[in-house]
Amino acid sequence: MTLDLFDSGPADCMQERLGEDLVVLRRFARDTAPALMTTVAAVAAQAPLRHMVTPGGHSMSAAMTCAGALGWVTDARGYRYQGCDPETGRPWPVMPEIFAELARQAAAAAGFPNFVPDACLVNRYQPGAKMGLHQDKDEKDLSWPIVSVSLGLPIVFQFGGPKRSDRPQRIVLEHGDVVVWGGSARLHYHGVLTLKAGQHPLTGGFRYNLTFRKAG
Ligand code: MD3
Ligand code: FE
Q1: CA distance between the termini of the chain
Q2: Lower Cβ count inside 10 Å, N or C end of the chain?
Q3: Which of 54, 72, 122, 131 to mutate to test the pocket of ligand 1 (most atoms within 8 A of CB)?
Q4: Is 27 marked as a binding-site residue?
């Protein structure tokens, strides 16, 4: 399948550069969002959304699943990428072509050509769910960027600097927004504030976030 609609981004896509190596592509995924959500449902049918438990024993408030050769897991032993879903014992669902193509096009639009992700983390936020400030550093080669796709209800996103104590900036991420970060921003602390209740025509009472990584 070819997805030419991504070749220069949707006509009404706005690019905001929030810092060196941190780019927000507003509405970049809006036209593809219905197909992305159908695909998320197919992934979740094979690898159920679940609340993973951190090494500290806390259940994560966002429900999570993965697609691709590698999936991110957390349990009592720590954080890591692995090829099988611990819930089912089966390999993670194959990376859907429509996911990989969107991630490649978004990364290229932000100045990172030839991005081929091997892991897609799917986070599903219900009202009250949040993700505290953290770094994404479990990937083998940190020279690749990460691409994030927001679907459904809006949320306040926080991004700081290389130290947890760096005061974070806040922006609202809305349906269809894509964030690409790499280079000097790759290890910056980030998170999202508590999701407020609402209804979205495509996702109902939820926000979904897809993050694409080259993990292995
Ligand atoms: C990092 N997810 O899954 S991604 C994660 O919305 C995760 O579900 C969040 O963090 C979510 O690990 C946020 C978006 C993002 C955007 C800009 C960043 C992460 C960033 C800037 C610097 C570092
Ligand atoms: Fe993260």
Answers
A1: 25
A2: N
A3: 131
A4: no
